[in-house]
Specification:
Rossmann fold, 8-stranded mixed sheet, two-stranded antiparallel sheet, 20% strand, globular
Length: 285
């Protein structure tokens, strides 16, 4: 199964998505994480295309979507893109699976437009554990400005061979199989003018905006989510454990499943377990 490539526009940006097929079935939208791309969902999409119209979005600054010159990559902008993509899909309600950044963006969309969302599977989509001491806005702003200025002069890392880029992919996630690492690298790189390989994502994505979402705003926004939410967490992940932080209580209808033997990329590390939990949640067993 080879997905078809399509584009749409949001916020004067040309953004990209893949259609895996299943038109006429209920829509299932897959949203990747930071510095990733939509083709990381290939195996996942194949497991659902018989029962859903499966579409995977390249977020702005990622994959084959446009980079954003002179602006930040913030949750409001990503949420806007998801809303624009919803107009492309047209069918309602929408079911989402989001990983990491994608999971957070999906939660924002569901809080702002609860009437449009049927169910959410959120894989590691909340962020790192809370810092021991909250950083001040002055510190956040200063750090963002300094990193942005530095990024202006930083050269993208280049790889002389495909195998070198694959090795870096496996270094980032040691749980990956060789085949998956090669697949992710294949769709996650471009050729530079000197023939070397560079990652497709915008390097400015490494510098997170200075303003996050204050806890009181998060509680209010996520309290508006009316659909069921399944949180999936890797048992070996560095990300926040929502059952200990109290963040999960912000979402009225939610539950957590921790999957052993998985890190942050749970859907790669324990693929069968994620498919099983997702299908059960969507009512397919």
């Amino acid at each position: 199964m080879t997905p078809s490539s399509h584009y749409f526009h949001s916020h004067r940006l040309k953004l990209h998505y893949w259609d895996f097929g299943g038109a006429g079935n209920p829509p299932l939208i897959l949203v990747h994480g930071t510095q990733d791309h939509a083709r990381n969902w290939d195996d996942f999409a194949r497991a659902f295309v018989a029962t859903h119209h499966v579409l995977a979005l390249d977020l702005r600054g990622h994959g084959d979507s446009a980079w954003v010159p002179g602006a930040m990559y913030g949750f409001p902008e990503f949420t806007l893109d998801l809303a624009a993509f919803g107009h492309v899909v047209k069918e309602r309600p929408l079911t989402f699976v989001g990983h990491s950044l994608g999971g957070v963006v999906v939660m924002h969309y569901a809080g702002a437009f609860p009437e449009n969302v049927a169910k959410i599977v959120n894989i590691e989509g909340w962020g790192p554990p809370p810092a021991p001491k909250p950083r001040t806005y002055q510190e956040r702003l200063r750090t963002w400005v300094e990193k942005s200025l530095t990024s202006e002069h930083r050269q993208q890392r280049k790889y002389s061979s495909f195998e070198d880029a694959v090795a870096r992919m496996k270094e980032a996630n040691p749980h990956l199989t060789d085949d998956m690492a090669r697949h992710l690298t294949c769709y996650g790189t471009d050729r530079a003018s000197d023939g070397s390989l560079i990652w497709k994502f915008d390097p400015f994505l490494r510098n997170f905006p200075p303003l996050g979402i204050p806890p009181e705003y998060a509680k209010e926004l996520f309290g508006h989510i009316t659909c069921p939410v399944l949180f999936l967490r890797g048992g070996e992940s560095w990300a926040a454990d929502l059952t200990e932080s109290g963040q999960m209580a912000m979402v009225p209808d939610s539950r957590m499943v921790t999957i052993p033997g998985a890190g942050h990329w749970v859907h790669h590390d324990q693929f069968e377990a994620v498919i099983r939990e997702t299908k059960a949640f969507l009512g397919e067993f």
